[in-house]
């Protein structure tokens, strides 16, 4: 009831205070009305002359929320249904709908919206207003559109209890659920801000969320990034004035001081109700909600971000669920991350990141993306950047460095076959750690990077997991996996799960930990290593020691890594953002080959992480055992995680094992695990042999196509020499941009 809020809504004011002539003036002469309105009400600083425009389906609570927001801001409140449409038509909305029918109603509603104008107000739209493009374009010009995103099942329950009889589009043969689903496309088109509303959230809470969201929208200064090697207490005035935003960190990749970018104020925290509101959502919808909260609209507007996400996770993925969760055995579940075009978890970031990058870079400069890969990143980044619009390809080139003898034959075929005129794959006669270190050194070589800018008008950027835009998309699938278990009835929201991930560069594991920080109830993060178990020993002892360690080639090459780059971000976090300590630790690692954590930090780390490793023999045995008992084939990395999970889980809660690649990519090892005596060396023949097993999952669709096209393609090979790598970089720039 209106009197509860101790102020008069617009329709009561017009009846009792201003006279009906004032409302007619608002509709016919908006400027004059705005002047009268301004003399009657004070405008809150949050709004200025802008309106807050609440949008959402019928039953979302727009009217009630609008009244509360208006009261808090001490500003006028306008309900389009009651104060505009019914006043204009001199009849109720339901009568108008019955009188003219669905299509004519939308047109009449749009015409009324086109005549309407206000400023400094809170406006509650009708549920069908967003379906009229011209009307929405008009009202959006002077407002911030806030989408109250309520789960469809909640809306249906509310409308049933309200006995609503005026749902536009509802007709015989068309269900209410169909109507609500159809309208989502229009809501997504127009909103500036999304407010996720759970089922039992009070209107007062929703109103506070709206106000917080508007404040965030208006102040991009709140979301800046710092380097892991800087600390708040030690930052200079010059550093404070040189702020980094999301767009900057996507472009730069590595911080100027050699550290990695992290959000200065941390990641957003979702409430339990907000997470529960996503249980019914699709993967794309979950990604949109999560990433909108992590990327400020000043960097990428919500509508553009939605477009990018839909492009990234649409037809490029062979499974409609994008990242499905499959029960394996007992309390173990597999998060299948291999349904993208290049058959590994890298696709989740690298189908998205190129579009983010292309949107953020200035139009006046060319960019060369540098990538180091231990196997899967190379093909994924080549595929992702190849899907950009032609106009973006003209100003973006890519160079992919990989260990020439340190990837599987199929991985190499993918990287060779994925080359384009503007994208090269270069095999380096060394290991992944050299490739990764070389790229870091190139970025911090100001003489070299400066000469590229001056001579060729070209800047360097990174697409490795050191780039923040690579990490963000990975948070989504860890959150989505938990929500899927809730949706399937395996657990109730709030029940804990463990996560086990084959871990090399620590990016995937860090993303799971970030999901935990954002409110997903993950209990333990289990790091699984192969015989390159430096990370396992570090988690157990606090000593990161590379002295005397040589990289061992294994059947799980993507985790054949000794220097885990993203560990730096995690240590910066648990060290309370002590950049000086992080700098000291990683300088010591670089110069002396080791460092040791303080006892208190090791205690914090061991509360979050546990770790184990397995041999190649144990890996192959696990593949054979799982296939024999379930008919399911694990890839070699997932098998490493399976072995470690078996050893370390306590079986008191479900454990989600990240299946990071499709077994087809590692056919020789899989055939060996299945105890095939003679293995043809031709990768295509190996895949055909595997397909004869009729196993789950089937052979990956993209790999067969890639191998058919690749044949014996050429690629560049170079020595492990910095000057040679830099020479290749200059050659590509000259060929593509000059």
UniProtKB/TrEMBL annotation:
Gene Ontology CC entries for this record: cytoplasm
InterPro entries given in the database record: P-loop_NTPase, Ser/Thr_deHydtase_PyrdxlP-BS, Shikimate/glucono_kinase, Shikimate_kinase/TSH1, Thr_synth_N, Thr_synth_N_sf, Thr_synthase-like, TrpB-like_PALP_sf
Pathway annotation: Amino-acid biosynthesis
Family as reported in the entry's similarity comment: Belongs to the threonine synthase family.
Family annotation (PROSITE patterns): DEHYDRATASE_SER_THR (PS00165)
Signal sequence interval, chain numbering: none
Keywords linked to the UniProt accession: Amino-acid biosynthesis, Pyridoxal phosphate
Domain Threonine synthase N-terminal: start-end pairs: 235-313
Swiss-Prot/TrEMBL cofactor(s): pyridoxal 5'-phosphate
Protein name: THNS1 protein
Modification type N6-(pyridoxal phosphate)lysine: residues: 346
Membrane in keyword set: no
Pfam families: SKI (PF01202), Thr_synth_N (PF14821)
């Amino acid at each position: 009831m209106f009197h509860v809020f101790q102020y008069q809504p617009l329709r009561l004011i017009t009846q009792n205070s201003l006279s009906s002539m004032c409302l007619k003036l608002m509709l016919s002469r908006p400027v004059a009305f705005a002047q009268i309105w301004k003399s009657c009400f004070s405008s809150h600083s949050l709004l200025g002359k802008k309106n807050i425009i609440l949008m959402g389906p019928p039953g979302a609570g727009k009217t009630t929320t609008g009244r509360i927001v208006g009261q808090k801001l001490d500003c006028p409140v306008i309900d389009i249904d009651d104060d505009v449409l019914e006043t204009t038509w001199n009849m109720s909305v339901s009568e108008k709908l019955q009188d003219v029918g669905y299509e004519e109603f939308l047109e009449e509603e749009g015409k009324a919206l086109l005549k309407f104008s206000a400023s400094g107000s809170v406006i509650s739209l009708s549920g069908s207003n967003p379906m009229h493009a011209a009307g929405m374009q008009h009202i959006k010009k002077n407002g911030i559109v806030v989408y109250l995103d309520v789960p469809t099942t909640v809306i249906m329950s509310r409308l049933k209890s309200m006995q609503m009889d005026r749902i536009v589009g509802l007709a015989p043969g068309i269900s209410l659920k169909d109507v609500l689903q159809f309208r989502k496309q229009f809501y997504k088109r127009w909103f500036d801000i999304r407010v996720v509303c759970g089922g039992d959230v009070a209107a007062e809470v929703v109103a506070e969320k709206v106000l917080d969201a508007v404040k965030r929208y208006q102040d991009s200064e709140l979301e800046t990034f710092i380097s892991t090697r800087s600390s708040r207490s030690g930052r200079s005035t010059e550093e404070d004035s040189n702020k980094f935003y999301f767009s900057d960190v996507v472009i730069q990749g590595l911080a100027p001081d050699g550290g990695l970018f992290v959000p200065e104020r941390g990641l957003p925290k979702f409430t339990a109700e907000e997470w529960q509101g996503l249980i019914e959502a699709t993967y794309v919808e979950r990604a949109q909600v999560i990433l909108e909260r992590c990327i400020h609209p000043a960097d990428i507007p919500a509508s553009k971000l939605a477009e990018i996400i839909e492009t990234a996770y649409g037809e490029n993925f062979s499974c409609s669920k994008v990242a499905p969760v499959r029960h394996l055995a007992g309390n173990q579940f597999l998060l299948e991350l291999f349904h993208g075009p290049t058959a590994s978890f890298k696709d989740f970031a690298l189908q998205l990141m190129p579009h983010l990058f292309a949107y953020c870079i200035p139009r006046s400069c060319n960019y060369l993306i540098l990538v180091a890969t231990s196997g899967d990143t190379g093909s994924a980044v080549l595929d992702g950047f190849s899907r950009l619009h032609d106009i973006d390809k003209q100003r973006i080139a890519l160079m992919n460095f990989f260990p020439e003898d340190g990837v599987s034959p199929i991985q190499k075929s993918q990287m060779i076959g994925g080359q384009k005129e503007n994208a090269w794959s270069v095999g380096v006669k060394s290991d992944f750690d050299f490739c990764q270190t070389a790229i870091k050194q190139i970025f911090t070589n100001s003489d070299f990077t400066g000469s590229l800018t001056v001579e060729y008008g070209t800047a360097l950027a990174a697409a490795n997991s050191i780039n923040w835009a690579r990490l963000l998309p990975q948070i989504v699938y860890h959150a989505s996996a938990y929500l899927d278990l809730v949706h399937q009835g395996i657990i109730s929201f709030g029940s804990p799960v463990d996560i086990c991930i084959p871990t090399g560069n620590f990016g995937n594991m860090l993303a799971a930990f970030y999901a935990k920080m954002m409110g997903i109830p993950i209990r333990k993060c289990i790091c699984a290593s192969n015989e390159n178990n430096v990370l396992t020993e570090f988690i157990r002892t606090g000593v990161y020691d590379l002295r005397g360690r040589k990289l061992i080639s294994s059947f799980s090459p993507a985790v054949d890594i000794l220097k885990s780059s993203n560990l730096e971000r995690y240590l910066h976090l648990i060290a309370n953002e002590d950049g000086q300590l992080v700098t000291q630790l990683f300088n010591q690692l670089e110069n002396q080959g080791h460092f040791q954590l303080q006892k208190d930090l090791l205690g914090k780390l061991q509360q979050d992480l546990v770790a184990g490793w397995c041999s190649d023999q144990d890996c192959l045995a696990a593949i054979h055992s799982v296939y024999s008992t379930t008919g399911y084939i694990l890839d070699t990395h997932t098998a490493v995680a399976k072995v470690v999970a078996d050893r370390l889980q306590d079986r008191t809660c479900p454990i989600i094992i990240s299946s990071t690649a499709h077994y087809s990519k590692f056919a020789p090892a899989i055939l060996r695990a299945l105890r095939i005596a003679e293995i043809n060396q031709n990768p295509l023949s190996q895949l055909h042999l595997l397909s004869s097993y009729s196993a789950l999952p089937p052979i990956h669709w993209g790999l067969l196509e890639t191998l058919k096209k690749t044949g014996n393609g050429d690629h560049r090979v170079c020595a492990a020499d910095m000057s040679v790598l830099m020479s290749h970089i200059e050659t590509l720039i000259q060929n593509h941009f000059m």
